[in-house]
Amino acid sequence: MAQKTSNTSENNYVGFVFDKQNYQFLIASIVIVFIGFILMSGDTDIYSFRKIVLAPIVIIGGFALGFFAILKKRKAK
């Protein structure tokens, strides 16, 4: 009966789920969403262009960047 040998250094590798660039994109997306909410805040003129059009576009752009950061694959080594 043959013994099954395994290389422990290859099988027990523990590392981060994402690359450094993925985390940078994720942090950037959080900042963009935060900026969008700041643009939406305030108590003057509820129906301004900034609050109805610009802020939601910025927030959706931040969420899209977050989805991109999560779905971006690692580079082959």
Beta content: under 5%
What general form does the structure show? Answer: rod-shaped
Mean pLDDT: 87
Instruction: Give the helix proportion (percent range).
Output: 55-70%
Straight-line distance between termini: 36 Å
Q: What number of structural domains do the residues give?
A: 1
* Separate helix tally: 3
Name the helix and strand elements from N-terminus to C-terminus, one letter apiece.
HHH
Measured on Cα atoms, how large is the radius of gyration? Answer: 22 Å
Number of strands: 0
Main beta-sheet annotation: none
Uncertain regions: pLDDT < 50 for 5+ in a row? none
Which class best fits the helix and strand makeup? mainly alpha
Question: What do these coordinates show?
Answer:
It is a single chain. With 77 residues, this protein is mainly alpha-helical. The protein has one domain (16-71). 62% of the residues lie in helices and 0% in strands. The protein contains 3 helices and no strands. The chain has helices spanning 8-11, 20-40, 49-71. The radius of gyration is 22 Å and the shape is rod-shaped. The chain starts with 7 loop residues before the first helix and ends in a 6-residue tail after the last helix.
Question: What is the topology?
Answer:
Elements lengths: L7 H4 L8 H21 L8 H23 L6
Task: List its salient traits.
about 60% helix, about 80 residues, 3 helices, rod-shaped, mainly alpha
